[in-house]
């Protein structure tokens, strides 16, 4: 059989040898490149839906007193690759007495401690470094660089359910 | 241009002085290949390429895989959730099958052309050890996805190991790790699969190659008179490259066409599951069936052991210098008997599969579970924008008991989040569990309205006492072929009031529990079961 086979009769012709070598080298390079590309994409692809927002129920209007911030701990489902966990996040609900609720994140914008509502002074106070915020979330004193983060919220349904986007 | 070339040459020279890479290249590539060595001698290179691909894809799969019973299944599902992940897992899965196939072909080539003969006995033994090692890879890798198949196949594997004389119990205990097949088994098999076996594999492959190079390629048993030896590169390397490319393309085609199977998560309480091994173990699996009871050890240990011993001793059984297969008739007969036996056993094992409904057809319970989940309000929370994942994407690894608690007691999982739902019967819960297990693996294919209605009735009531397609209770008669004996009218009469048809009937009357529409649906469904 081997007379028709290009590789069977090792030729002393440098041209044939070079052509075969080129074929071998380029095929190996293509296979290696394809494998590297596939494995590269597999390794660096972003985790699926890691930052998907959800609307989470945070109580009803009837739980609130007008203009008194009410802390709520929300269980927020977090998708971490294949791992599903719930993180707890504290927010303050502030009802203006009509059909509007403002929701502040309780995380101090300075270094991430949880602020507390001081009913006497009517301020949010951060226990860590003395940050003070007004009832509207504005910085009054201390190191915080910006007002408390506002969390999107809406009121829905006949029972005035408060939904918070986390 | 000349300046560039001068720089490149100088750089190569600089490296050569320090690494001797030219010598290495010469040793690796300029091996003398005997004249007449042809395409059949490319099988070893195919194996080397496949092993390389397995090592690479396997190493990358560990980026996402988590070897714990709680997370293994989810992590494999996560890997399969992107196209690249499906491809990598597919290549690793089907590559293993190709590896076994080409190992056997390589072994046959060596046996038929007598390449194991002196002075290549140790090369032969190291090759056999590699075969054993690859099978150990297959066995340990099978468990890692932690699905039903993986779990129950491992139960069988460990029970087979238990049959070994004298040390059986001890070996089984080592394989199992803990008191049951669970977390300790999984981490143990994972370590074996990704650390210990690969280390051994690399060492053995190197030994095999070094021995092969020391003794030289055996070449054809009858050398052509004309022709002289030629260098491996690029002549034999060209053949190797062609065959390797074709084989790798075939692996990729398999990975492209079909996802490796992933069944429901491992459920140690589901004793009804019938495990089947990977196809290359089906021959052994079939052999076991011929040796029931106390003779099992013959099929499980003695016959495979004798076959392995025969192979290991082959260079000393077939000792003469003759390598031409035409002049070694006894060995050729032995090879043919062996190949025939393995082929027949594998085919029989393949055909002898349990009678169950086609795996992609939904059972009535699952279809009914969908409607029950619908009116139970699961979708209030389990939806795209809800507090919980939609049922299609949920991480479902819980059993019926947990779901029952979850469905009936809202405080259990999310205090204050929802109102307690209406109580659900045990059968309704079971149907929802079946539905969620199915929907997490396969999108709802859509069934006609009357089948859905019938399925809901079936899943709420009938399934407690009657079986269809292997699913259901056994207090009443099987209804898989109810339509052969009764027409719609008769079935309706029976369902509405069994005692009116047969005064001794144990079945309760359903006349006032079913709407006319539901009664029509279930009766015409049963009548259609011929």
Features:
heterodimer, A: 166 residues, alpha+beta, four-stranded antiparallel β-sheet, disordered N terminus, B: 530 residues, mainly alpha, Cytochrome Bc1 Complex, Chain C, Cytochrome Bc1 Complex, Chain D, domain 2, 3 domains, two-stranded antiparallel ribbon, 60% helix, 2% strand
What does this structure look like?
The complex is a heterodimer of chains A (166) and B (530). Chain A has one helix at 14-44; strands spanning 55-60, 70-80, 83-95, 101-105, 116-118, 123-125, 132-133, 139-141, 150-151, 153-156, 161-165. Helices cover 19% and strands 34% of the residues of chain A. Chain A starts with 13 loop residues before the first helix and ends with a strand. In chain A, strands 2-3-4-9 form a four-stranded antiparallel beta sheet, with no helix packed on it. Chain A has a four-stranded antiparallel beta sheet with strand order 5-6-7-8, with no helix packed on it. In chain A, a hairpin with a 5-residue loop joins strand 3 and strand 4 (101-105). Chain A has 166 residues and is α+β, with helices and mostly antiparallel strands. Chain B is mainly α. Chain B has helices spanning 2-19, 21-29, 43-61, 72-79, 83-112, 121-143, 148-162, 168-176, 183-215, 232-257, 282-289, 296-317, 329-351, 364-375, 400-408, 426-439, 449-460, 482-485, 488-496, 498-501, 516-527, and strands at 32-33, 230-231, 467-468, 471-472. In chain B, helix 5 crosses helix 10 (232-257) and helix 17 (449-460) packs across helix 21. Chain B is elongated and about 95 Å long. Chain B starts with a helix and ends with a helix. The model of chain B has no long low-confidence stretch (mean pLDDT 87). The A-B interface holds A 1-2, 5-10, 17, 20-21, 23-24, 27-28, 31, 35, 38-39, 41-43, 45, 48, 54-57, 59, 75, 77, 81-84 and B 36, 38, 53, 56-57, 60, 63-64, 66, 71, 74-75, 77-78, 81-82, 84-85, 87-88, 227-228, 230-231, 233-239, 241, 244-245, 248, 385-389, 395, 414, 416-417.
């Amino acid at each position: 059989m081997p007379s028709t086979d290009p590789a069977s009769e090792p030729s002393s012709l440098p041209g044939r040898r070079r052509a075969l070598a080129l074929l071998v080298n380029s095929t190996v390079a293509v296979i290696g490149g394809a494998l590297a590309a596939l494995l590269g994409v597999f390794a660096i692809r972003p985790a699926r839906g890691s930052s998907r927002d959800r609307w989470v129920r945070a109580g009803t209007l009837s739980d609130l007193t007008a203009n008194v911030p009410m802390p709520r701990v929300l269980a927020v489902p977090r998708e971490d690759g294949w791992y599903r966990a719930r993180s707890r996040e504290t927010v303050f609900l502030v009802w203006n007495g009509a059909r509007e609720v403002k929701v502040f994140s309780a995380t101090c914008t300075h270094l991430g401690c949880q602020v507390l509502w001081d009913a006497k002074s009517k301020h949010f106070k951060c226990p860590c470094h003395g940050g003070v915020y007004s009832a509207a979330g504005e910085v009054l004193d201390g190191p915080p660089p910006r007002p408390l983060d506002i969390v999107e919220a809406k009121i829905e349904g006949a029972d005035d359910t408060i939904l918070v986007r986390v | 241009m000349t300046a560039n070339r001068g720089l490149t040459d100088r750089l190569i020279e600089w490296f050569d002085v320090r690494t001797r890479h030219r010598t290495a290249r010469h040793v690796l590539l300029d091996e003398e290949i005997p004249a007449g060595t042809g395409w059949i001698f490319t099988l070893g290179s195919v194996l080397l390429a496949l092993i390389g691909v397995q090592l690479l894809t396997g190493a990358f799969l560990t980026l996402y895989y988590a070897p714990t019973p709680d997370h293994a299944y989810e992590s494999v599902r996560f890997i399969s959730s992107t196209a690249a992940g499906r491809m990598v897992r597919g290549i690793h899965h089907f590559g293993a099958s190709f590896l076994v196939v080409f190992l056997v072909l390589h072994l046959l080539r060596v046996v038929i052309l007598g390449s194991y003969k002196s002075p290549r006995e140790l090369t032969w033994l190291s090759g056999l050890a590699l075969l054993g090692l690859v099978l150990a890879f297959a066995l340990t890798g099978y468990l890692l996805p932690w699905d039903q198949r993986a779990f129950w196949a491992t139960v069988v594997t460990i029970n087979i190991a238990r049959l070994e004389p004298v040390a059986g119990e001890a070996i089984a205990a080592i394989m199992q790790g803990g008191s049951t097949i669970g977390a300790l088994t999984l981490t143990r098999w994972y370590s074996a699969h990704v650390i210990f076996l690969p280390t051994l594999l690399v060492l053995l492959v190197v030994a095999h190659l070094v021995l092969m190079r020391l003794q030289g390629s055996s070449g054809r048993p009858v050398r052509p008179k004309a022709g002289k030896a030629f260098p491996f590169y690029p002549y034999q390397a060209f053949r190797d490259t062609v065959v390797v490319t074709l084989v790798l393309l075939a692996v990729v085609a398999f990975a492209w066409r079909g996802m490796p199977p992933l069944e429901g998560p491992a459920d140690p309480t589901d004793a009804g599951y019938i495990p089947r091994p990977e196809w290359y173990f089906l021959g052994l699996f079939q052999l076991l069936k011929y040796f029931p009871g106390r003779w099992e050890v013959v099929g499980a240990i003695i016959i495979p052991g004798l076959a392995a011993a025969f192979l290991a001793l082959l260079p000393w059984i077939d000792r003469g210098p003759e390598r031409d297969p035409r002049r070694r008739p006894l060995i050729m007969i032995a090879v043919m008997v062996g190949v025939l036996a393995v082929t027949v056993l594998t085919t029989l094992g393949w055909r002898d599969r349990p009678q169950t409904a086609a795996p992609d057809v939904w059972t009535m319970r699952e279809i009914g579970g969908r409607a029950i989940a619908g009116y139970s309000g699961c979708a209030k929370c389990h939806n795209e924008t809800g507090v919980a994942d939609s049922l299609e994407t949920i991480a479902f690894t819980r059993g019926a008991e947990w779901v029952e608690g979850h469905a009936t007691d809202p405080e259990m999982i999310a205090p204050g989040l929802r109102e307690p739902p209406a109580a659900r019967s045990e059968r309704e819960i079971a149907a929802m569990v079946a539905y969620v297990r199915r929907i997490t693996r396969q999108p709802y294919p859509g069934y006609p309205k009357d089948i859905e209605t019938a399925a809901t009735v079936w899943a709420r009531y009938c399934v407690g006492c009657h079986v269809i397609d292997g699913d259901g209770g056994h207090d009443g008669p099987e209804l898989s072929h109810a339509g052969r004996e009764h027409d719609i009218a008769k079935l309706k009469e029976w369902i509405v009031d069994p005692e009116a048809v047969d005064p001794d009937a144990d079945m309760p009357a359903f006349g006032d529990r079913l709407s006319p529409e539901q009664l029509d649906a279930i009766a015409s469904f049963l009548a259609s079961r011929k």
